[in-house]
Amino acid sequence: FQPICLILTKCQCSFWAMSVIVGPNAPKIRLKTQSLVTVKLGESAKLSCQATGEPAPRIMWISPRKDVIAVSSDKFQIMDGGMLVVKKVTLADEGKYACVARNSAGDDIKNMKVEAEPQEPFINGMKGKSTTKALGVSYQTALLDCRVEGKPEPRVWWVTPYGHSLTTPYLGGRFQVHRNGSLELRGVRKTDEGRYTCLAKNHLGEASLLVELEVASLAEKPSFAVPNIEILPIKQDGGELTLECLARGKPNPEFSWVLPNGTMLAPGVRLQRFIHHRSNGTLQISQPVATDKGVYRCLAKNVAGQAEKRYALEAGRKPMIRGSTGIIVVLVRIRV
Q: Deepest of 78, 91, 225, 239, by most Cβ within 10 A of its Cβ?
């Protein structure tokens, strides 16, 4: 800035002007004494890092594995003010994190340690006792998921329908228990059906997961009776447009829809004017408009594989089915 000095006397008026240039200042991180953050497993940890300096310093975070943390990911989020958010903390997220504030004049570092609080075990996000079902296919591999969290690290083991205990890790015959607690059964047979129990225990408590395994003797990949691409017109008459997803397979497939913008609709979900019916897998569009044009994808999936059917909605075009043998003109069902 340029301060101006003005002196007035009876005889003269004098001016002095001078310029003051402020040089760069190295970053300085506030509250460097805050070095430990404790958090419950499954919750988010927030690590503060506020710094001053000229020019304004850039904030960078280093993980316990010495990796530079990206601004946004499934595990981390760096906020505008420099705060680091560690999402859904697990035991693997514990350790020392370093905040580095840097500008042209230098840098400053703040180390913070993240620790999970002692906690009783929980399995697949559930405490206490829980149950689930799993479906396997004859002569294929079945994986029974048992993701265990707790501190101190719990002891994990499986009990088979025949009363055999399989510790973690375990490898014997067709059975393998991975270090993450999951049980893998290779070459599944009908005789493998039954109740499998995953148990986790530390000095604070225990948790259990009962998995009822059913083995299908035969599986068929989903398929559609009609060609997999249909081109349909959009009629802006205030009615409803229904897109069917009729697929067969063993076991019966589960359906999901993907809208033109990439949004996925699970069964029973409603999004504005779009409804995915749980009972038959159809997609209903209320009061369709020209902006609804695009490709709609129905995904049918079971343990044997996945199939896809696509509808291309276009404004002012006659309905068609496009297959491998040619083009057939059909009518679309419009409900009013």
A: 78
220-335: CATH, from 2.60.40.10, 3.90.226.10, 3.40.190.10, 3.90.1150.10: 2.60.40.10
Q: How far is CA 130 from CA 136, 158, 162, in A?
A: 20, 14, 20
The token duo for 100 is: 């580095």
User: What's residue 225's pLDDT?
Assistant: 79
Supply the pLDDT for residue 331: 40
* pLDDT score recorded for residue 21: 56
What pLDDT does 10 receive? 55
Domain 25-116 and domain 120-216, same fold? Reply is: yes
Going by C-beta distance under 8 Å and a sequence separation of 6 or more, which residues neighbour residue 143? Answer: 182, 183, 184, 185
Distance CA(84)–CA(198), nearest Å, equals: 35
**In the numeric block, which tokens belong to residue 225?**
């009776």
Q: What is the pLDDT of residues 195-241, one digit of tens each?
A: 999 999 999 999 999 999 999 877 788 998 777 788 888 887 767 88
Decide if 295 contacts 230 (C-beta within 8 A).
Answer: no
Q: Which amino acid is at 116?
A: A
**Across the strands, what pairs with 54?**
25
Give me the residue spans of the domains in the chain: 25-116, 120-216, 220-335
Strands 119-123, 84-86: pairing is unpaired
Instruction: Find out whether 103 and 53 touch, Cβ atoms under 8 Å.
Output: yes
CA distance 182 to 65: 25
Ranges in the chain, pLDDT < 50: 1-2, 5, 323-336
pLDDT mean across residues, the chain: 86
User: Which of 304, 107, 116 has its CA nearest to residue 221?
Assistant: 304
Mind giving me the DSSP string for 236-264?
-SS-EEEE---EEEESPPEEEEE-TTS-E
> In CATH, which superfamily holds the domain spanning 25-116?
Immunoglobulins (2.60.40.10)
At 158 the three-state DSSP class reads: strand
CA distance 191 to 159: 16
